[in-house]
Design brief:
alpha/beta; seven-stranded mixed β-sheet; five-stranded parallel β-sheet; 6 helices; 30% strand; binds NADP nicotinamide-adenine-dinucleotide phosphate
C-alpha cells in the first residue's frame, strides 16, 4: 500500500495550495482529484479580485499557474475518486479508484457543488436548457432568451457573461435587492439585454425535450406568471461536498465542515480547507490561505507524532 505524509482530496485553489506548502516542506504529498484540477475557478471566465493581477486573470490561466507550481515542488497529482476514508493506526486509510492509500494526515478540500432549486421539471430538463455552469453552456444559449436564478456574486457575474451570448437574460431574484458586489450590480444595471424580475421565485420549469418556459411566483403577492425562456441557469448557492468525512468531523446545519483556526477538525490529523469549510467568505483568496494553514498544521501534527513516538 502506498504511504504518504499528506493526502489532499480536491484540486481547487485550496487543495493545490496545500500541496505547494506541504511538498515544499519536504512532506510526501499526494493530491487526488476526481475531475479536472481547478474546481470552480476552472469554469470561471475572469477573476478580478485575486491580488497580483491588476488587469484580472482568466480562471483556467490562474489554475494552470497554481498547478504548475504544485508540480514543480513535487506534488503527485492524480485523477481518482475518493470513496472511503477512515482513521487507521494513528493515520488514515483512503479508498481511491479501487486502491488503498495510507496517509499520516489528510486535507479535505472538496469544495461545493451547485444547490438545485428542487422545483418540478428542473432535474428532468438538466442538460436540456437547465444549467448550473454559464461558461460551459453559454454557446448553447446563443441568440436565445434565457433566465438566471440568484442574486449573489455568481448569479450576477455569470448573467453578465451570458448576456454576451444570449438575446436576453432575465435575472429572477427572490428579494428586492442583490447581495452581489456593488461593481457587478452596476455593470448588470447598465447592460441593455439584462433585466431583473424581483421578489420572484421559480415554481416550475416547463418543456418536453427542451426548456420552453418557467412558471414564476411573486413572493409578495403570490401571483403566478409564465416567462417564455429557452434556458434556466441556476446560481442559488452551493452545497458542500462533505459526505466523505461526515462521521469524522462536525458539520454546521448546511453541511459545511467546522474547523478551528488551524483548519483542524475534531479528528486529529484530519484538516479541511477552502469552500467546504464553514466560513464567512468563500473566495479564492481565502481558499489559498486555508490550504497553506492546513499544510502547515499537517506538518506540525506529523512532527508532534514523531516526537511522542521518540519520547
Ligand atoms: P450566494 O452568495 O450564497 O448567493 C446565492 C443566491 O441565491 C442569493 O442571492 C440567494 O438569495 C439565492 N437563493 C438561495 N436559495 C434560493 C432559492 N431556493 N431560490 C431562489 N434563490 C435562492 O452564492 P454564490 O453567488 O454562488 O457565491 C458563493 C460565495 O462565493 C460567496 O461568498 C461569493 O461572494 C463568492 N463568489 C465570489 C466571486 C467573485 O468574483 N469574487 C464570484 C462568485 C462567488 P438571497 O440573497 O435572498 O439569500
Amino acid at each position: 500500500m502506498e504511504n504518504y505524509d499528506v493526502t489532499i482530496v480536491g484540486a481547487g485553489p485550496a487543495g493545490l495550495t496545500a500541496g505547494i506548502y506541504a511538498s515544499r516542506s519536504g512532506l510526501r504529498t499526494l493530491l487526488l482529484e476526481r475531475a479536472v484540477p481547478g474546481g470552480k475557478v476552472q469554469i470561471t471566465e475572469r477573476i478580478e479580485n485575486y491580488p497580483g493581477f491588476a488587469a484580472g486573470i482568466d480562471g483556467p490561466a490562474l489554475i494552470s499557474q497554481i498547478k504548475a507550481q504544485a508540480e514543480r515542488f513535487g506534488v503527485d497529482i492524480r485523477r481518482a475518486n475518493v470513496t472511503g476514508l477512515q482513521p487507521d493506526g494513528g493515520g488514515f486509510r483512503l479508498k481511491a479508484g479501487g486502491e488503498d492509500i495510507a496517509a499520516r494526515t489528510v486535507v479535505i478540500a472538496t469544495g461545493t457543488g451547485p444547490r438545485p432549486l428542487g422545483v418540478p421539471g428542473e432535474a428532468r430538463l438538466e442538460g436540456r436548457g437547465v444549467s448550473y455552469c454559464a461558461v460551459c453552456d453559454a454557446d448553447i444559449f446563443r441568440g436565445r432568451d434565457i433566465a438566471v436564478v440568484g442574486g449573489g456574486d455568481s448569479a450576477i457575474k455569470e448573467a453578465l457573461y451570458l448576456a454576451r451570448y444570449a438575446r436576453s437574460v432575465r435575472v429572477i431574484h427572490r428579494r428586492g435587492e442583490l447581495r452581489a458586489a456593488r461593481v457587478l450590480q452596476e455593470r448588470a444595471f447598465a447592460t441593455p439585454n439584462l433585466s431583473f424580475v424581483w421578489q420572484t421565485v421559480v415554481a416550475e420549469v416547463t418543456g418536453s425535450d427542451w426548456v420552453d418556459g418557467v412558471v414564476v411566483r411573486n413572493v409578495a403577492s403570490g401571483d403566478l406568471d409564465r416567462l417564455p425562456v429557452e434556458g434556466l441557469v441556476v446560481f442559488a448557492g452551493n452545497r458542500p461536498h462533505s459526505r466523505l468525512v461526515e462521521n469524522l468531523v462536525d458539520l454546521d446545519h448546511l453541511g459545511f465542515i467546522i474547523t478551528d483556526e488551524d483548519m483542524g477538525t475534531r479528528t486529529p490529523g484530519l484538516f479541511a480547507a477552502g469552500d467546504v469549510r464553514r466560513k464567512s467568505l468563500r473566495d479564492i483568496v481565502t481558499a489559498v490561505a486555508d490550504g497553506a494553514l492546513a499544510a502547515l498544521n499537517a506538518q506540525r501534527h506529523i512532527m508532534r507524532q514523531k516526537h511522542t513516538l521518540a519520547s
